[in-house]
Amino acid sequence: MATALITGATSGIGREIAWQLAAERMNLILVARSADRLEEVAEHIRQVADVEVEVLPADLSQAEGTLRVCERLIDDERPVGLLVNNAGFGLGQDFVGGDIERELNALNVMVRAVLMTCHAAIPGMVARGGGGILNIASMAALTAQGTYSAHKAWVRTFTEGLAASLKGTGVNATVVCPGLVHTEFHEKVDVDPGQWPESAFIPAERVAAEAIEGVRRGKVVVTPSRRYRALAGALKVAPRS
What we know:
By secondary structure, this protein is of the alpha/beta class.
């Protein structure tokens, strides 16, 4: 049975991806900072889906946490067939005058950890002749809204380049660019989601389903929902200002 490793797996899109992959009979490795919350989610999935769920507590804002995940990814005796880089957070501050440690932590989680885990996972996947990388970006990647947009733009461009370099290896790289989703994202940075109409939000389960289907079909860029695909097209041709 194949195994997927998912970062940021205890809430939002990451948790929904975990549940949907478990429903497809994939074993899981769940990564997040809180060991207690990881075990709670893992035990629930084990009982309902009857798959193996390994927990790997790691803080990806710190080098040692990311290295711990990389060590698991290079373990050829327990191969990982799908890597899902979902961990991330909103900064909740302006860059000018903001806390530099928070900026560096965000960079580490949403850029460095993605780079390092992909670098660790891909050689084994190529050697085995198959596998998948699923990186979660955002519609913000097409905008210029501070460092969060910059991080997600990097994830999108990096994944597109990765997909091109992996052609013919049997390994796919997919980046998902969701719009607004009801998760803990806004709550954690004290942003009121009520400022946007309810129709602007996509359910996390839909984002997860389209992401997984994108990996299955070998798609490089997945933008969930027709509305956001239209918006993405408009943003590409709109003046940057």
